[in-house]
Amino acid sequence: MNVDELIAQVTPHQVAAFFGVPFPAVASGEVRIPSVFTERGKGDSSYGALTINLDEPQNPIYCHVTGTRGNLLTLIHGFKHHRPPVSGKLRGDEFKEAARILQEIAGKVDAVMSGQPTPAVASPAPAASEPQKSEPVRRNIPLKESENERARLLVTLHEQLVVDVAEMSAAAGAYFRSRPFLTPDVCRKWRMGYLPHSASSLLRGRVVYAFSNAQDDILSYFGRDPQFEQHWLEWDQAGRPDDKRPMKHRFVKDFHRGLELYGQNGAARLQESHIRESLASIGLVVAEGPNDVIKLDTLGVAAVGLCSNKATDEQVDKIARFAKRLAAGRIVLMPDNDAEGEEGFKELLWRLNQCEGVTVRLAWSSAMFGGAFAGRQPESLSIEEWNVVRTRISE
């Protein structure tokens, strides 16, 4: 379980709704509610009892009555038991219980981890005499059409992104230098780059990508930790503590990435001759991450990405639909050649082969080509290596 990723999918409003507790109807700033770490009705103080910061990704909390600090898991523990964690911090069985409840709030954990949209958390079931309400339709709305003024202002966030390596932090600069295909022109084309720590966005200090719809309207942004590999190594060496697992990507809450494909902005991309040629000659390539899609594009390849190693039902349907409309039904799968990537794409291969009107091929694997590409990702390909892979696809 990636607890950090689950926390990023759930809001304090949803936690409160899960336990049937009223919550202030605000979307940002700090909110104060009665303490959840005391007996019911005894959680008041002159400081407002319990403070929750809605502007921070982990939604840190502080109880002015008991002095308890923590995040959503600690808040869940308080709602459940009305007392602070035994040792002051969630550990052992207390941590596991809160994490299980977080899973329940977020919905089916496999769906959340694979990028499927998080179901809305309903309040406690209504009495039998009350009419049942239908579940809300899940969809992503372009930022420019959002009812939230702050969200509408994010449409131009990509204009704040730094694309000159010399102006980046040391960690971000190293990230871009190790990926020389991310030139300033390529970054501007894809509306991605480094967001400085001086920015007001919660994605500051990260490599930020715009996520567009088929009409090339920006739906949302997401950020990649430029030091993820180092943080993962440190976490692994520390014994993999449950509450310290590093998070590679951070998505904005309420964005259902499982409904979309990175690189799906076809109205804009189809104007490029290399995209039309690639679709006509080999088909639609499906990869995992945004860097894979961008690198393949620089090699003249038409690709879309899952932003995960597992596909949702909506993504499978969209891949098949795109392939039938634009690539004569031909699909080429190009996962990361590691255990997780290959396992996820085995399932995708099976599911796509059950779709009418498509043919599916595997571009590579850790065993194909004599194991030459074991452990590799599409973003690491040179033009010479791609030509080797393409030759096989074209046979």
List the helices and strands and how they pair.
Blueprint: H1 3-9, H2 12-18, E1 30-33, E2 50-53, E3 61-63, E4 69-70, H3 72-81, H4 92-106, H5 109-113, H6 149-153, H7 170-177, H8 184-190, E5 192-194, E6 207-212, E7 218-224, H9 228-237, E8 249-251, H10 266-269, H11 273-281, E9 284-287, H12 290-298, E10 303-305, H13 313-326, E11 330-333, H14 339-352, E12 359-362, H15 383-394
Parallel strand pairs: 9-10, 9-11, 11-12
Antiparallel strand pairs: 1-2, 2-3, 3-4, 5-6, 6-7, 7-8
Helix pairs in contact: 1-4, 3-4
Q: How would you concisely characterize the structure shown here?
A:
The chain has 395 residues and is α/β, with parallel strands linked by helices.
What does this structure look like?
With 395 residues, this protein is α/β, with parallel strands linked by helices. The protein has three domains: 3-113, no CATH class; 143-259, Alpha-Beta Complex (DNA primase DNAg catalytic core, N-terminal domain), CATH 3.90.980; 266-394, Dna Topoisomerase Vi A Subunit, Chain: A, domain 2 (3-Layer(aba) Sandwich). It has helices spanning 3-9, 12-18, 72-81, 92-106, 109-113, 149-153, 170-177, 184-190, 228-237, 266-269, 273-281, 290-298, 313-326, 339-352, 383-394; strands spanning 30-33, 50-53, 61-63, 69-70, 192-194, 207-212, 218-224, 249-251, 284-287, 303-305, 330-333, 359-362. Mean pLDDT is 85; it is low at 42-47 and 108-135.
